[in-house]
User: Fold this.
Amino acid sequence: MKNQTQVKKTDPDDQLNRVFHALSDPTRRALLKRLSDAPEKVTALAEPFDMSLNAISKHLKTLEKANLINRDNTGRTSICSLRAEPLHDAQDWLDQYARFWGETLDAFSLHMDKQIDDGTDGSGEKG
Amino acid sequence: MKNQTQVKKTDPDDQLNRVFHALSDPTRRALLKRLSDAPEKVTALAEPFDMSLNAISKHLKTLEKANLINRDNTGRTSICSLRAEPLHDAQDWLDQYARFWGETLDAFSLHMDKQIDDGTDGSGEKG
DNA sequence: TCAATCCTCAACTATTTGGTTGAATATCGG
DNA sequence: CCGATATTCAACCAAATAGTTGAGGATTGA
Assistant:
């Protein structure tokens, strides 16, 4: 097993990977922004973009795989809505580094005092 | 010009893109974790990984392009250290969605009341 | 029924990514 | 100078991404 950090080479199944990847694209961030206002159907979401409907459909699939959106399939339309929990997870991860920009650490710092666990140790995912 | 959202098709120059992309890889997150403990030279950083030194060097370059690490080139060694500001930026972006998992909104919500600006409007980057 | 609408699937392309190996550059130390 | 160490550059490769077009499945509604 080689006492290595073993990061599961670019593991596509890791939730955090998927979320951060989803957020790394400006179109997808714009879609989330739009959905933060109200749920929308796919065509409505696609309309403002200078891009094919299919492209948007794929972006939505990416967001869906990251669990960042829900879909309500009523009839032929698919209503997408924001699902923010994974964003919260991402924020939790970032919070571990909060001490590096000072302040904001109270009882938190006690918890944080020992070491940062960034979720890349292989536990908690696909045994 | 078509009144479109104009998201600068997958703009690789956007700082937020680079940061979220950098965070989407578990090896890079592990490197940041390591650097959150103490600055390290490249060989030391690479050692725990089941991966070539070159691969780590490239990951470090990605982190560098996202401004997530600094390098102190003393002699033949390159000492890498964490630079957390961009993480803070990422957290700020995520904070805009905080209202979706309830609470934590005080004077913040006033600022947020109107609309979310997710940094994909094209301002502030490469004119 | 049948045309229009909404959306996804399939196939293709170009580009990026994440990894490799091998050579090159640069410094350190005898 | 010369060898060892530290790091990067260059070329290459496989796989994933982000986009396209075209076809097809469902649903709506006249």
